[in-house]
Amino acid sequence: MPPEHVKICTQIIRNLKRHHDSGPFLKPVDPVALCVPDYFTIIHHPMDISTIESKLKSSTYKNIDEFIDDFSLMFQNCYEYNGTQQPVSLMAKNLEVSFNNQLNHYYHEVKTYNNSFYSYLYKKSSSRLMKLTGEMVVCKDVINEILKKRYEHISYPFLHPVDPVALNIPDYPLIIKTPMDISTIQEKLDSGIYLKKKEFEDDFRLIFKNCYQYNPEGTDVYVLGKQLEEIFNEHWSMYKKEFFLFLYYFFY
């Protein structure tokens, strides 16, 4: 990584270390001190700010992508081990917002100075930021809730695309022009296709709309659709309270 790139990355780290929520992420997780003996069983690639700083100083990073990847890994490890509702995860989300804010700041420098480094940073980091946004983490948490075993007796008709042949409903494609199911939503989420939380929500609500449009009121599938919609609304409204913590960046 060229010296001018290292200088900017060093400044980002310096700013993050001063952040009021950086404490849990400054050093490697100590499973003994924190009484989390299963940490390394769940988290196979631990990461922290001091390790990132050491790698930067030792010229381990070849480019900006690798630098961003390690910060992404640090945040994702936190969400994976703790879930998104624990205090430490809320701290991670705040720190992630600060990290993304700084990258966004350097993007604006591209417009002002047309500096080659900033242009490089912009090109390399923009797609990453789309995938790292906290909104998508929360969307993932919602779909994971819906997929839990306790809801499988309700969610099963909506888990996979409707098969008109297997279900003997040949008119389904004639009535439902835009089919949708949970596995398709999950695939789009994992692939980084959603750019806004509204797109995720719209697809989920399309499942229910299709269900009510095709199945007469009072039928088993119609009733299950209503029940699943209530479950979705409950979790969605709960997680929406956190969305103000997340900044979503568009790079044009």
Description:
- It is a single chain.
- With 252 residues, the chain is mostly helical.
- It has 2 domains: 3-132, Histone Acetyltransferase, Chain A, CATH 1.20.920.10; 141-240, Bromodomain-like (Histone Acetyltransferase, Chain A, Up-down Bundle).
- It has 12 helices and no strands.
- It is elongated, with a radius of gyration of 22 Å.
Structural class: mainly alpha
Question: Could you state the order of secondary-structure elements as H and E?
Answer: HHHHHHHHHHHH
What does the average pLDDT come to? 83
Question: Which bin fits the share of residues in helices?
Answer: 55-70%
CATH homology superfamily name of the largest domain: Bromodomain-like
The CATH class of the largest domain: Mainly Alpha
Number of strands: 0
Helical segment count = 12
Tell the overall outline.
Answer: elongated
What separation lies between the terminal Cα atoms? 25 Å
CATH level-two architecture of the largest domain: Up-down Bundle
For the report, how would you describe the main beta sheet?
none
Uncertain regions spanning at least 5 consecutive residues: 107-132, 244-252
Radius of gyration, taken over Cα atoms and rounded to an integer in Å? 22 Å
What is this structure, in a nutshell?
This protein is an all-alpha fold and 252 residues long. The chain contains twelve helices and no strands. The chain has two domains: 3-132, Up-down Bundle (Histone Acetyltransferase, Chain A), CATH 1.20.920; 141-240, Histone Acetyltransferase, Chain A.
